[in-house]
Amino acid sequence: MAVLSKLLEKISYECMQGTLDREITDIIYDSRKVVPGSIFVCIPGAKADGHIYAGDAVKAGAAALLVEREVELPDGADVTVIRVEDTHYAMAFLSAAYFAYPAEEMQIIGITGTKGKTTTTYLVKSILEQAGRRVGLIGTIETIIGDTHIHAENTTPQSYLIQKYFRQMADAGCDTVVMEVSSQGLMLHRTQGFIFDFGIFTNLEPDHIGENEHKDFEDYMRCKGLLFKQCRIGIVNHDDTHWEAVTKGCTCELETYGIDTQADLRAENIEFLNEAGTLGMRFQVKGLLDFPVEITSPGKFNVYNALTAIAICRHFGVQVENIRAAFLAAKVKGRTEMVKVSDDFTLMIDYAHNAMALKSLLTTMRAYHPHRLVCLFGCGGNRAKSRRYEMGEVSGSMADLTIITSDNPRCEEPQDIIDDIKIGIGKTAGKYVEICDRKEAIAYAIDHGEPGDIIVLAGKGHEDYQEINGVKYPMDERVLIQEILEERRKG
After folding, report:
1. Global pTM?
2. Are residues 295 and 202 in the same domain?
């Protein structure tokens, strides 16, 4: 519990009615979850406006309301009404105060960019823990607090949840937090209420542009840049052509990393490794540091991810041997994740679920000169058909064999989705087979693997379910693979 006046100490506001001398039991932004004595934050959203439910919140026992405009209240309502310019922004500061500013007890690392955020957060966590630090993680896949893993709904949670997780991390003994920072999270002020010790920019490509997201690429880029007005040290990819625009007007110190330009920290002498069904990379770190590195993840983009992690961990005084050991041990679920099934060919799981990501992945795999490049994927139901055509065309053009299967059909017929994908493949001369059942499709890929093949299972990545008609059924590709291998051993 906290006194309302204390929660408001770092924001500008107007008290429209009631007293500030109230004990607040919690901060709530879903009217269905209001508890007696809480403050209900009226957030205008894409689908619903919390201001409409102010009266319901009061009836449920809310002691205070945080609003941007006038709201209808029950007659004689004993409630304090606080008006602010932006309730998203104000809630971030309220939440920080409610949980007693936990970010001040730890060092906070925020990573933004179109690609590489998830992998880099896990690499940083692995390296810093090798060096003896206790690291919390907030990201696309999960939030990690000690031994507790919490499934993620958003890449960057609501500000209240961020502060709640920070408090739990600090209380659990964490001294560092590494988190993914999405453009949506920045746009909606979810990361206000504290200062990042380090802000990182990986890269920028057109994404998340459209209704309920960003109106155009410039807005997307502007929102990414907000991180560098909210951090002490900025670390940016000098090879990305947008880095100067993203950091324009920044208020932090800046340093750079890269491969193809004269950045402060560089990767040189890059080699591709392909040994016994496992792909990796080797390179020399130059510039601010100087030592060789080997990673167990394939492709130039993973060199960028590793270099980003090194640039961050340099500030923590991590020893070279800890960095090298961490890279050999680090695994990121569903991101070029290799699953050992044979010494003769490589099988990997990746989250690539749109044409841009799939093209990048298949281009990377081509650099290993496989005997055949096999791509297994499906597309989600109740999503734009254009994604199906585009992914079909990319796989048909770049893979030697495409295995079309089911992803999350949701409320569509799986065969209808497959037929749409075939329209895209039809624009190419690519060979394909269609096997609707995903387990059968994976079994086909394994049974027909040839020496030197690289087989990519794309689209599901870290997901451990398949959504059909509104129900999420358990389905983890790692489990399916082990079941298939066990069935082959018994058979």
Report:
1. 0.90
2. yes
